[in-house]
Automatic annotation (TrEMBL):
Source organism: Paenibacillus ihbetae
Signal peptide (from-to): 1-20
Gene3D superfamilies: Periplasmic binding protein-like II (3.40.190.10)
Keywords: Cell membrane, Lipoprotein, Membrane, Palmitate, Signal
Lineage: superkingdom: Bacteria
Name of the protein: ABC transporter substrate-binding protein
InterPro entries reported for this sequence: Bact_solute-bd_prot1 (IPR050490), SBP (IPR006059)
Entry keyword Plastid: no
Keyword presence, ATP-binding: no
Pfam families (alphabetical): SBP_bac_8 (PF13416)
Amino acid sequence: MKLKKWGGLLLTCVLSVSLAAGCGSKNPGGSKEGETPGETAANLNQTGFPIVNEPITVTGFAGKFFANADWNNIKLWQEYEKTTNIKIQWDTVHKDNLAEKRNLLLAGGDYPEMFYASAFPRADLLKYGKQGAFIPLNDLIDQYAPNFKALMEKYPIIEKGITMPDGNIYGLPTLYDPEFKSVLYGTPWVKSEWLTKLGLSEPQTLDDFYNMLKAFKENDPNGNSQKDEIAWGGVGAAGIVNYLRGSFGLNNHGTSNIYVDSDPETGKVRFIPTDPRYKELLQYVNKLYKDGLLEQDIMSVKSTEVDAKGVEGLLGVVDNVDPVAIYNQEGYVGLPVLKGPHGDQMYTATGSPLGNIGMFVLTDKAKHPEAMIRWMDYFYSDEGIRLFFMGWKDETYKEDADGNVDYVDEIKNNPDGLNLDQAVGQYLIWPGGYYPGFVTQKYFKGAEGLPTSVENAKKAEPYVITQDKIWPPFNFTADEQSELTGIQTDITTYVDEMRDKFISGNESFDNWDQYVANLQKMGLDRYLAIYESAAERYNQ
């Protein structure tokens, strides 16, 4: 996914499957043990508000971005409680401690009725779903979630991506509107003023790109008679590698499963890091590094160090969101998609519209699953999305005659010196990017929604792989996941370490065959076979 980590930017199920399967004593279609049959149904309104006639209280656990935020007293949930008659008794933890806390709750059995913004990995969804702790949501979506169901029907990748191999859906996701192109992809940013000063056109080929970076480094484009310019500024080598993947014909299904795609000749799953094209890509990036055209500490540099150089205007190319948003530096434009050595000119560094699919989970302790799926479904509607991201008209946002919305001045230019995330965080919970829901261009006001970001995506669009070709992260069976866990960490850690060593010159490309042989010893053939099975299931 193209979304960057900068504050609040972040940005084929069978619906007849019985929800009773694997749910223990839970009966999602009606009453909970200890309730009078029909009591839940009698209190529930099928449409509109309030969701329930008589108020109910539901226990919920969530991860949050601001450690000091009290979700039991934040305006979003207070107002939504009035609208729905559903009070959430929130237990929250800072996102840095989220995994540990949620795992402890489940291990101890003292877990809530609902997990919200808890970012469960796919393996956990299947594990706890098969154990019966998480209830299947298939029938509940079919009957009580018209907004989410409509999105599944419009974008089949959603249903295929959230359905586990057992046919069940155990969690609802963060979704990024496929029409919101700039939140899904965008090329790195180049300082157009430097191009003009040096009489350079925007690069179209790998040679052009090399020559542009070399000119930035050597020809004093900032005019201070010092060689202090950083041609490419970024943290880690992944940014430059990902930008160039499509120029070498790699990742033809996007980067959600970043190590695999389809072999153009056989159609079978290909392991990218052993492909000759990937070797060529690393050799090209090694040349950039060796000639001083990348940040020389790129493997170890801290983001704060790069940010300091960015604020000074010393970065020719920025691998992040628009520098106007993070460095207050105007005049950067998106780089073109480059033509590679074999004629490839694709932009493949894009993920699927699916974010984390374990952002809303109902447990077998949920007393009112029908009401809670309706509670969540609202945030997949236009009205609910506007509430979630923008808040309340004339209080937190204003709307012009054409229906365009923006935050009020008190939030954008907070009198207490709060930044946008902090000012919004007094009312809403979206800053930090931890939430289920639907991210749309109309209501999302992070850097990806800036006109410059939209223009960047539009420039790349002719070369971006189409939505029907993009794979979401694959779901594995329990047996596959168990086996994969044993080999995947070793393989991916080794691949990333060797990528950096090859680029930096700490490992000779003469040792490439030994690198491939080491991966074979780690179980690469079995790794590929498991991914092949997952790809076949997805393509059914």
